[in-house]
Description:
- By secondary structure, the chain is α/β, with parallel strands linked by helices.
- It is 20% helix and 31% strand.
- It has 5 helices and 8 strands.
- The strands form 2 sheets. It has a 6-stranded mixed sheet. Strands 2-8 form a two-stranded antiparallel ribbon.
Amino acid sequence: MKRVALVTPRQADHALVVDVVKIPEEGLAYAAEVAPEMLRLPQEDAMTMQTPVVIRGLFTKVAQQVYFHGRLHGVVTVPCSRCLEMVQSHFVTEVRAVFFPPASVAAEEAQQGVTDELDLYEHNGVTLDLQPLVRDQVVLSFPVQPLCRDDCAGLCQVCGNNRNERPCTCQVERKDSPFAVLKQLNLKPS
Ligand SMILES: [Zn+2]
Ligand SMILES: [Zn+2]
């Protein structure tokens, strides 16, 4: 598991594609670094990734079903949900997935909840493509409410000043005001 293939954009598609027939009984160790532009992320998410996603894991095969157990890690740069400063958020995700041969009975059973601990994908009988799995996992890893630090003071709701940089003396609305309650909901555009 020590081999790491450093993937250049030209090779990246190849790095995410694994030959199903070459997975031996004892399993196949897999390691790759994949440039974010190879993941075909949604436009908005793609903007936030500047470094490769590192993938390591093991492929095993039972009949025509290929299992992958591994880890992904990467970094996304997103605005702090309180003060909007850009912050780097590291993610590490453990992945357990199964790749079924196309149109198999096992895949249909699994989709009915038989294998609910595994993420389900398909291979084409010859090769499997990790790209959909990696893309899904990266999108799921985006922080919902990133913070630059746990005690980020945020922006002043009155004057817009970043209160981490300097305090301001603006009068904050009384806690029992209906508007104060609304603001505490910390609504985020989805
Ligand atoms: Zn902040
Ligand atoms: Zn202020």
